[in-house]
Amino acid sequence: MNGVTGRMGYRQHLVRSILALREQGGLDLGDGTVLWPEPVLLGRREHALREIAARHGLEHVSTDLDAVLADPDVDIYFDAQVTAAREEALRKAIAAGKHVYTEKPTATGLAGALELARLAREKGVRHGVVQDKLFLPGLLKLKRLVDGGFFGRVLSVRGEFGYWVFEGDWQRAQRPSWNYRAEDGGGIVVDMFPHWEYVLHELFGRVTSVQALTATHVPRRWDEHGRPYTATADDAAYGLFELDGGVVAQINSSWAVRVHRDELVEFQVDGTQGSAVAGLRDCRVQHRSATPKPVWNPDVPATERFRDQWQQVPDNGEFKNGFKAQWELFLQHVHTGAPYRWDLLAGARGVQLAELGLKSAVEGRRQTVPEIAL
Fold first, then answer.
1. Which residues, including other chains, have CB under 8 Å from residue 300's CB and lie 6 or more apart?
2. Nearest-angstrom CA–CA distance, 98 and 206
3. Which of 269, 101, 365, 194 is nearest to 90 (CA)?
4. What is the pLDDT of residues 16-64, one digit of tens each?
5. Cis, peptide link before residue 294, omega less than 30° from 0
6. Which among 274, 253, 323 is positioned nearest to 21, based on CA atoms?
7. How far apart are CA 293 and CA 211, in angstroms?
8. 62, 221, 286, 359: which one has the fewest Cβ atoms less than 10 Å from its Cβ?
9. 2: helix, coil or strand?
10. Tens digits of per-residue pLDDT, 277-334?
11. Long-range contact list for 50-58, CB < 8 A, 24+ apart?
């Protein structure tokens, strides 16, 4: 597990996924087989790795990627490093015959992302890319509505994501400083457009075009050591996406916005038969038969709250941590060959959308998103 000293690698992948699986006694496949994940903590800072290992009672720590990849007892290589370091490490892991599971984006450009998918196919290793938002309770409820035909014909999707990331001078920033340096693989388009690609693709249809406007709203920030630096990457992106079937999606992504929503990300879906608003956990709906008849009159105060006219979608089950749920599926895929579609080619589609989004912002025009294949 490379990158577990970082925020996402440690909290979501190590603690809430792999260690959570160990705490429950391993992954029971239901046929008498139990998979027991034994993590090898990999990174550049040995002291930080050993501190994590001691905290959680783990044995295996290394700062030598090549040595770990040469170990025949290691079956899977997982990568949660900074984006700029990921592609080379994945190439090495594939060449060593390891199955690979990785955070996104998988590479800094589409050519590199496609090459990783080709190399993995040629080597015959199993491969997966984290697409965690598909496993969020709110989006699982939204998918249930789509699959059940609740919306009729889907017309549009509107998404709002983001929060205020402190500049780092008077309050410590909640995100690492490399996120705001383009030369280090930073930027909100690179970070979030891969998410929007798989969310839109899985729920509503393939993205066929993108038009984006990007901004660096906060040009000066302070790093982890309190040193000022110039932000060279975009911290906000305003995207317009066309999907197969004519659905139009608008998604705003920003690290320079203060939250006036119920959740940090929300999607409103409008269809001919009904509408829904889904966040990380909750989902609310308004059916055609229960839609009120608003009348525009700025001279008369509103007599009721529009939010009160919506109905909550019930849980109807228990939801796991999204990262853990996908880890379970990938481990089962590696062991049994069970179907698994969130692979390096799916990851490449996310890289493609980010690349074309940035190109659209530079050129000031809409970009067609062609289908990709190996």
1. none
2. 30
3. 101
4. 999 999 999 999 999 999 999 999 999 999 999 999 999 999 999 999 9
5. no
6. 323
7. 33
8. 359
9. strand
10. 999 999 999 999 999 988 888 898 887 889 999 999 999 989 999 999 999 999 999 9
11. 52/4, 52/5, 52/10, 52/14, 56/14, 56/15, 56/19
Query: If you search the block for the tokens 């979030």, which residue do you land on?
Result: 192
Q: Are strands 99-102 and 127-129 parallel, antiparallel or unpaired?
A: parallel
Report d(CA 131, CA 106) in Å as an integer: 12
Name the CA radius of gyration of the chain, rounded: 22
Q: Dump pLDDT digits (tens) for 101-126.
A: 999 999 999 999 999 999 999 999 99
3-state secondary structure of 13: helix
List beta partners, residue 127: 100
**The one-letter amino acid at 297:** N
**Spatial separation of the C-alpha atoms in residues 93 and 74, rounded to whole Å:** 11
Answering whether pTM is above 0.85, one says yes
d(CA 120, CA 182): 28
Per-position b or e across 226-253, b if 16+ CB within 10 A of its CB: eeeeebebbbbbebebbbeeebebebeb
